[in-house]
Amino acid sequence: EAQVTQNPRYLITVTGKKLTVTCSQNMNHEYMSWYRQDPGLGLRQIYYSMNVEVTDKGDVPEGYKVSRKEKRNFPLILESPSPNQTSLYFCASSFATSGKFYNEQFFGPGTRLTVL
Amino acid sequence: AQKVTQAQTEISVVEKEDVTLDCVYETRDTTYYLFWYKQPPSGELVFLIRRNSFDEQNEISGRYSWNFQKSTSSFNFTITASQVVDSAVYFCALSGTLLYNFNKFYFGSGTKLNVKP
Fold first, then answer.
1. N or C: where does chain A have the smaller number of CB atoms within 10 Å of the terminal CB?
2. B19 contacts: CB under 8 Å, gap ≥ 6
């Protein structure tokens, strides 16, 4: 089954304790993104990746790191989490072809993170 | 700058009523795509529709219809004869194309729709 998986789905942690949220897709997609969803703000893009070892900042990258060492994985790293990073996080993957000019994103199920 | 505005934070209707969710966007791109997603209480994001900037035809899918008006930069979503299962948060989104801004996605703040029996 084609899917994007995220782990963990729920996480409660404390300020300053490094954490990683994993994202994996089995569709061989080149593109992957991370978003955070906050009430009243919708989804905002944190980082995106165009392929292995190619990443770029989205609109809210502060406090986050990403890496893309393998095509299927795109982990989100919070080196020193703070309470303002409490949010619902979504990973997405997509691909581009010459016959399809739009970005059809496949979203993961989301990770709810609470930083105390 | 790219921006999507969903001015309606929350809407409550009674089952079988029609409801329209508004979406207004800003972009300097000449070509772009607009999307609607549904987020039910379970939390996942469900793709509903995609529309490119060159196609202003309205679209109907069952009880759902979409009205794209480039002149007013709006992409509104109407649910006819609403049902309780339509209760969800609905997001409008804007993205670039393969030629430009392909990886940039901009979401509105969402409209929470409550459909009461």
1. N
2. B11, B13, B78, B79, B82, B113, B115
Amino acid at residue number B45: L
Q: Tens-of-pLDDT digits for all 116 residues of chain A?
A: 889 999 999 999 999 999 999 999 999 999 999 999 999 999 999 999 999 999 999 999 999 999 999 999 999 999 999 999 999 999 999 887 666 667 788 999 999 999 99
Residues of B in contact with A47 (CB under 8 A): none
Q: Are A86 and A114 in contact (CB under 8 A)?
A: yes
CA B108, B90, A60, A81 torsion: positive or negative? positive
The tokens 């049902």 sit on which residue? B83
Q: Which residue in A35, A44, A96 is closest to B98 by CB distance?
A: A96
Which chain A residue's Cα is nearest to B98? Answer: A101
What chain A residue is nearest to B7 in terms of C-alpha separation? A40
Q: How far is CA A78 from the centre of its chain?
A: 11
